[in-house]
Design goal:
OB fold (Dihydrolipoamide Acetyltransferase, E2P), 9 strands
Length: about 120
C-alpha cells in the first residue's frame, strides 16, 4: 500500500496552477514537518524541518486548498510518487512528491491534539 500521512504547516501560500491548456487546475503545497520531542527533563528538543511537496488534483480538495496561507496547519493522506528528470545541465535529478488525486486521498485541517507550550 502506497500511503503517506503528514501533519505539518505550509511554508508559503498555496500555489494554484493551470494544466491541460488551462482546462484544469492543481494546487501545490509545500509542507514542513518536524520530529521535535521531549527529553528526559521534559524540555522540547527541536530538530530541523523536513519539507514535502504536495500536488493536489482532487476536485473537492482543490477548493479547500486554494485559500490556504503560509503557516496554516494541514493533514494530508495520499500516495507518494517518485520521479527522475534531467536538469538544465543534463544531470539526472530525482524528486518525490505526494499526489492527492484518488478517491480516498484527503487534505484537511488536522484534528485537535495536544499542543506544546512556547519555550
Amino acid at each position: 500500500m502506497n500511503l503517506v500521512h503528514l501533519i505539518g504547516r505550509l511554508g508559503k501560500d498555496a500555489e494554484v496552477k493551470a494544466y491541460k491548456d488551462g482546462e484544469k487546475e492543481m494546487v501545490i503545497l509545500n509542507i514542513a514537518t518536524s520530529n521535535d520531542y521531549k527529553d528526559d527533563t521534559g524540555a522540547w528538543v527541536r530538530r530541523p524541518a523536513d519539507w514535502h511537496r504536495v500536488v493536489v488534483f482532487k476536485p473537492g480538495a482543490l477548493d479547500f486548498c486554494k485559500g490556504l496561507k503560509k503557516g496554516a496547519q494541514v493533514e494530508v493522506k495520499a500516495a507518494l510518487k517518485s520521479g527522475k528528470f534531467a536538469d538544465a545541465e543534463g544531470k539526472d535529478q530525482y524528486s518525490a512528491e505526494i499526489l492527492v488525486q484518488g478517491p480516498y486521498d484527503t487534505v484537511r485541517e488536522p484534528k485537535k491534539r495536544e499542543t506544546r507550550e512556547a519555550a
